């Protein structure tokens, strides 16, 4: 990335986030990598998932549309060295194609994805769960406003204020706008759900494949943190409530629509059915503003509190 691209606002470079260059037959290389605040490595949604989908789609006939990606994060990655993506065609059918994508950095495999493509069958019957009842986006606060409230609250501790000030700067530069639709919503059956409005900022019109790349980027935002919240862990907490580490192990996304605009508000509904043993699993559903369920997601990740196995001496956290 050149200096001008580096200095432009992040909301103006979603295309740069997702761009890869072809360096050989079925072989691609990243052009931009991003490490989020306090993260161990490059952001999985923007790089490992979205750029892998871009690479795979470039190797497939355009009459096929990606409908599923199942990803495994093997090692953390650095923003200092480009990531290379190698695509292999595993199955070529009349209705479905399957590809594998392997991402490597410095000679080591850091990520693996299986993705499937389908010739759309829009004439087939369809069904979906209804979209939850939430306030519309214009009645919800931007996430930046919520961060500012924490910063300005007289009882916020210094460490938390410092963290949210950094998050606020990062959020303002993010290519994705986020609003909390419902926080910690509890259903009648006791299921806790988190709901966010999300959209790409100020993007031009993109064709369907590119909309899915952006949706894959969005699908990783705030996802595993739903599990840490259910477990009662947070930044600035103490003991078992102190969040010391989160890291994605695997991530899957299923696309069920080819006609949506990631530049319009999308509702991302998340829930966590189980957490324990230093792990948590989350499920998510992404709806258009009009209520169409366009994607279903699932993710498992490492979630560790600042507590140690009493039978072992203290040691650095390691996957």
Describe it for me?
- Belongs to the C/M/P thioester hydrolase family.
- Keywords: Hydrolase.
- This is Acyl-CoA thioesterase II domain-containing protein.
- InterPro entries: ACOT8-like_C, Acyl-CoA_hotdog, Acyl_CoA_thio, HotDog_dom_sf, TesB_ACOT8-like_N.
- This protein is of the alpha+beta class.
- It folds into 2 domains: about 10-120, Hotdog Thioesterase (Thiol Ester Dehydrase, Chain A, Roll), CATH 3.10.129.10; about 175-310, Hotdog Thioesterase (Thiol Ester Dehydrase, Chain A).
- The chain contains 7 helices and 12 strands.
- A 12-stranded antiparallel sheet has the order 1-2-4-5-6-3-9-12-11-10-8-7.
- The chain is globular.
- The chain starts with a helix and ends in a 14-residue tail after the last strand.
Features of the shown structure:
319 residues; alpha+beta; Thiol Ester Dehydrase, Chain A; 12-stranded antiparallel beta sheet; 12 strands
Quick recap:
The chain is of the alpha+beta class. It has helices at residues 3-7, 14-18, 44-57, 143-152, 158-172, 208-219, 225-230; strands spanning 20-24, 27-30, 65-73, 84-92, 96-105, 108-118, 176-186, 192-200, 243-255, 266-276, 279-288, 293-305.
Topology, pairings included?
Blueprint: H1 3-7, H2 14-18, E1 20-24, E2 27-30, H3 44-57, E3 65-73, E4 84-92, E5 96-105, E6 108-118, H4 143-152, H5 158-172, E7 176-186, E8 192-200, H6 208-219, H7 225-230, E9 243-255, E10 266-276, E11 279-288, E12 293-305
Antiparallel strand pairs: 1-2, 2-4, 3-6, 3-9, 4-5, 5-6, 7-8, 8-10, 9-12, 10-11, 11-12
Helix pairs in contact: 3-6, 4-5
